[in-house]
């Protein structure tokens, strides 16, 4: 809801933007819903200004609804929302005469709907959506085309990111009486004066802040490693629409002396990925990608046997992966790496109950053996948690 205050002692207008939201199919003003509590506090501070009531000319409320559903139903819904805001103002502020408060309604808010699509470059099939909205079709036909475009991919994005913001309540325009400008008196012949009542400007169309979720980074864990109790964490950062970079750490450090079991591994990997396909039609970090990877590490492995191995390794190669959504903030990714693996290893035997305790004795001859491998070097089934940053975008820039 926009509140526009025109101070009576100034020639220019001062403007306050207050947005009120309604629940789906709701016409009851809920102060606890979304940011309504803070918005109503701002409205209260504005109306309780000592200059408001004595200089109040009128209040016009204009309500709207999201372009989702039958047009006639949405028109009636916006009427109820306008009346709800009017009832709130006249009920809470009895000092305001009811005949000074007007309720208007516009039905579906296609103006801001179009603006949101034009502003958000991440929405799938943006150009096709704009062409549909700009066409001369009826609103019902436009809505059907939008919902069925690309098997509903664009509509799912709209329903998640746009519709909650389009379910706003009203634009509340508060008009104030202007103080007459004092002029010097001049002696002139008296003439009949025509009294022309001041004209009121029409209330402006609602300008709703566009809240865009921009991905900051994704956190991943390879479930295959987790099953083996190999603790791991990967961070991936998207760069533009087509690229991303990632860094991974694997750091299990487990040891059970009497059970002849050791799994100690410290490794770090980095990768750069190129995401395939039409990125305007896909959400970030979903679909197919290919890339390069490389990493180093050290390890000590002894798996329920007297024999064990310690060493360092290096690997690098090509990788391919596919990722898809499983929830609002979660993805699954399946990846395979193929390349070169080099290990510098030393084998040992576990000897228990010596005068020094349980010890590991390297085998003779005591030398480091280099082992090389070309082929698959890793496989991942990763759970991905995407962290987003919400950005409020208004006319004039991002704030």
UniProtKB/TrEMBL annotation:
Pfam family of the protein (one): DUF3575
InterPro entries noted in UniProt: DUF3575 (IPR021958), OmpA-like_sf (IPR036737)
UniProt-recorded name of the protein: DUF3575 domain-containing protein
Organism encoding this protein: Butyricimonas faecihominis
């Amino acid at each position: 809801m926009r509140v526009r205050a025109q101070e009576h002692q100034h020639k220019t207008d001062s403007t306050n933007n207050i947005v009120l939201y309604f629940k789906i199919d709701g016409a009851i003003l809920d102060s606890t819903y979304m940011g309504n509590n803070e918005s109503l506090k701002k409205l209260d501070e504005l109306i309780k200004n000592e200059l408001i009531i004595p200089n109040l000319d009128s209040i016009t409320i204009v309500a709207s609804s999201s372009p989702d559903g039958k047009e006639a139903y949405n028109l009636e819904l916006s009427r109820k929302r306008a009346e709800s805001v009017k009832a709130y103002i006249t009920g809470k502020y009895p000092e305001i005469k009811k005949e000074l408060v007007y309720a208007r309604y516009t039905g579906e808010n296609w103006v801001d709907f179009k603006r949101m699509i034009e502003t958000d470059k991440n929405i799938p099939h943006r150009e096709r959506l704009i062409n549909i909205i700009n066409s001369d079709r009826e609103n019902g036909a436009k809505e059907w085309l939008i919902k069925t475009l690309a098997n509903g991919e664009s509509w799912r994005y709209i329903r998640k990111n746009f519709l909650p913001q389009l379910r706003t309540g009203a634009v509340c325009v508060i008009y104030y009486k202007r103080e007459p400008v004092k002029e010097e008196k001049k002696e002139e012949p008296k003439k009949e004066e025509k009294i022309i009542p001041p004209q009121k400007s029409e209330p402006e169309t609602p300008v709703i802040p566009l809240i865009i979720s921009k991905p900051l980074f994704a956190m991943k864990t390879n479930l295959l490693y987790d099953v083996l109790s190999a603790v791991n964490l990967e961070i991936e950062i998207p760069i533009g629409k087509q690229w991303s970079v990632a860094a991974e750490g694997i750091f299990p450090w487990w040891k059970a002396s009497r059970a002849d079991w050791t799994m100690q591994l410290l490794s770090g990997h980095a990768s750069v990925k190129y995401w395939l396909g039409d990125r305007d039609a896909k959400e970030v970090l979903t679909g197919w990608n290919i890339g390069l990877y490389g990493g180093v590490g050290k390890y000590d492995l002894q798996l329920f046997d007297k024999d064990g191995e310690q060493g360092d390794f290096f690997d690098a190669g090509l990788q391919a992966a596919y990722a898809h959504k499983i929830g609002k903030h979660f993805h699954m990714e399946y990846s395979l790496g193929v390349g070169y693996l080099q290990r510098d290893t030393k084998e040992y035997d576990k000897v228990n109950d010596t005068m020094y305790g349980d010890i590991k004795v390297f085998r003779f001859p005591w030398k480091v053996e280099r082992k090389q491998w070309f082929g698959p070097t890793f496989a991942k089934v990763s759970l991905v948690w995407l962290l987003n940053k919400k950005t409020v975008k208004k006319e004039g820039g991002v704030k």
